[in-house]
Amino acid sequence: MNEVNGTTQPKLRVIDSHAVVSLKATIGNGVRIDAFAVIEDDVVIGDDCWIGANAVIANGTRMGKENRIFPMASIGNEPQDLKYHGEPTTLEMGDRNVVREFVTLNRGTSETARTIIQNDCLFMAYAHVGHDCRVGNRVILANNVALGGHVHINDWAIIGGGTPVHQFCKIGEHAMIGGGFRVVKDVPPFILAGQEPLVFEGLNSIGLRRRGFEPDVIATLERAYEILYRSNLNVSQAVAKIKEQVPMIPVVESLLGFIGRSKRGIISGRARH
Fold first, then answer.
1. Whether the model pTM is above 0.90
2. Exposed e or buried b for every residue in 198-230, given b needs 16+ CB within 10 A?
3. Residues ≥6 apart with Cβ < 8 Å to 25
4. Cis omega before residue 197 (within 30°)?
5. Nearest to 96 by CA among 78, 76, 120, 72
6. Structural domain includes residue 78
7. How many CB atoms are closer than 10 A to CB 233?
8. Is residue 67 part of a domain?
9. Residue 7: domain span
10. Are 123 and 97 in contact (CB under 8 A)?
11. Which of 60, 61, 225, 257 has an alpha carbon 20 to 30 Å from 114's alpha carbon atom?
């Protein structure tokens, strides 16, 4: 909002004359839409967003404020699923997300009807988010990351470039996955993952310290993961031992909850020679 003569005035929209913007779309204050962008009928764009040249914001998109959509991105188009038959579904995006060139974010199918992206995420060029995915806050998908349908990515996760994630996989909060690896099982929270096939490579200690985790919390997580991946126990045995020997602080509860909800199974530890 701008203050003029002591009164608060809404910011003006700036829409290029070569953009194609439906009169049925809901466009917030302070939105800028560049040349040749296309905004379809059933679209909501919040305040202070920028839509770059040649970007397409398709029917069913619900976008919060201060999002930056770079040229040639495709937001909210139909899911790439043969079971989809045109039913109304949505792509719901929060605030302050950055969507770089040629990113594709598909809306949901009838199974959940929604693809959901939270706040402050970065989708680098050519990244893809498939139908019915759930992407948390401050997630980073590097160039050419591809999420299959129904993938869940929790807060602060980072996925390296060129990494495909199999449908229905889950990635825990603060996990970091190296570039160029396939994700076909669930990746627990707070860890580093790499190699082919993908394995546990240690705690994401540097990331956790940068985000303000206390040393004693990191040490407790180290102990829990030592039991899970370095004790030669199966997962159920390791979980039981963690409950017996590790303090049930919130991060450990988060780890055990993630394991309990896993349907594809979690990634393995590095093989010992």
1. yes
2. bbbbebbbebbeeeebeeebbebbeebbebbbe
3. 39, 40, 41, 42, 43, 44, 45, 57
4. yes
5. 120
6. yes
7. 15
8. yes
9. 2-153
10. yes
11. 257
Catalytic residues: 131-132, 149
Whether 134 and 233 share a structural domain? no
Separation between Cα atoms, residue 100 and residue 120, nearest integer Å: 13
In a domain, 71, yes or no: yes
How confident is the model over 148-168, as pLDDT tens digits? 999 999 999 999 999 999 999
- Dihedral class, residue 174 (left if φ above 0, else alpha if ψ from -120 to 50, else beta): left
Total count of domains within the chain: 2
Amino acid at 149: G
Structure tokens at 254: 């988060």
Residues 113 and 9 in one domain: yes
248: CATH? 1.20.1180.10
Which of these three, 138, 153, 168, is where a domain ends?
Answer: 153
Query: What one-character DSSP code corresponds to residue 183?
Result: B
**Both tokens assigned to 76:** 């909210």
Tens digits of residue pLDDT in 219-263:
999 999 999 999 999 999 999 999 999 999 999 999 999 999 999
Residues whose CB falls within 8 Å of the CB of residue 98, separated by 6 or more in sequence, listed in order: 67, 68, 70, 121, 122, 123
The torsion of the CA quartet 25, 26, 29, 30, rounded to 10 degrees, works out to -30
Scan for tokens 């240690």, then name that residue. 202
d(CA 155, CA 171): 9
Q: From its phi and psi, is residue 162 left (phi > 0), alpha (psi between -120 and 50) or beta?
A: left
Name the least confident of 11-15, 58-62, 159-163. Answer: 11-15
How would you classify the pairing of strands 74-77 and 56-57? parallel
104 with 232, same domain: the answer is: no
